[in-house]
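Hi there,

I know you've been waiting on this one. I reran it after we fixed the sequence typo, so this is the corrected version. Both the input and the resulting structure follow.
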Amino acid sequence: MFVKLYSGGFLGLETYPVEVQVDISNGLPFFNIVGLADTAVKEAKERVRSAIKNSGFTFPSKRITVNLAPSDRRKAGSLYDLPIALGILASQGIFDIEPYRDFVFLGELALSGEIRAVRGVLTVVLGLRKLGFKKFFVPKGNVGELELIRDIEVYTAPSLGDLVNGNLKRVEYSNRDLSGEEDYPLDFADVKGQRQAKRVLEIAVAGFHHAAMVGTPGSGKSMLAKRIPSIMPPMEEWEILEVSQIYSVAGLLTDGLITKRPFRSPHYTASEAAIIGGGNTPMPGEISLAHRGVLFMDELPEFNRKVLEVLRQPLEDGKVLISRAGYKVEFPSKFLWVSALNPCPCGNYKHPFRECVCKPSQIRRYLKKISSPLWDRIDLKIWVNPVEETELLKDLQEESSKEIKRRVLRAVEIQKRRNPNGKFNGELNNSELKEVLNLEKPAKVLIERAMEKLHLSARSYFKLLKVCRTIADLEGEEGIKTKHVSEALNYIREPLEV
């Protein structure tokens, strides 16, 4: 007997419907799965066999053929276990398929018959909804991923036996408020001094400008970077879905949707594939997992030169295209890039009271690990000096993250009202920037003088203008004044001269 059910597949963030076709015929006992299936799908045979038996049903001693159509698209993962098992039971007349003809079934089966969560559910459901599918059966562990998707019906059951016996239930979602205040455990009030560095990070977050902090060990660079999420604006619904899709494909959605901006901090030993993404089954890398959040790279010169160079295209385009022999996939990667680095191999160059033992040639060689084109893509550069002992001992109340965030939110709101498509200033292209610049005449003269003296590249020039626009927004000014340009010029100069 022939039976057909619907499931779904994905390659990167691209999704497609999959027909699970099951045919049982007379012959020697044989169970085969075809349709360009990977190892995990092939192993479904043993999981399905045990799950059916341990759920109290009969597994047929006949020839079983399962085809996952279309046969020219790769099928990966364990999400086809459930529809395969249901197809076998329906072919025997044990499961009535008629009420579920328009359902999409996704789920892995334990040997006991329990239905377990799988990766990629959010991505598959979003993609298939656009194709007209409205009813989805998903494991209980994936239910939380779908709470923001409108106009669909979601069903779940704890086990194969419950589903076959009709004990499935429709999921009703409450209207959860995802736009409230976020509790972040780290606060800028914990950082003594470093007012200029805090100011730079405030500008970076307000306009989505990439920033680099250069300073000796122990000056507080990592401590500052880890507190950046505490001043970032809350995520909007479309951002939550965008980011959660990436984490769903990566199998990192363990507790519902991602509602807080990601903060990723890969170690400098990370490989190119770990940063950019890839693998036999395409997986997002760190730059995509940091989408709409922060990618913090500590000890920047210690990263492999090739790893750093792959950042150049995603920093410009906000997406990464991974091309391999068997596939081409695209992942979004619009992230705030914050990096920290020591000024020299020993770390003590320009330290106020420690001696640097590095030769000038060693320092130049160390810093040359970061290429000029990559360094040119950093909007804000700041030297972070060690905090003086007297300032450390003062019992002064530092400005909290809530106070800084208040200014950031005000600047972000100004940009949303003014900029095309609600873009941050750092995301504007040159023509969009021209429309919103509003540069006062004295400020324009100051920029022209700076261009002559500093010999800025075209990219650095436009980045300077964007930073000026963000500083003006933080102060609630419509026009860019000379004070805004003067401050911005302090942050675009090279912090090191050897």
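Quick highlight: The first strand starts at residue 2 and ends at 11.

Best,
R. S.
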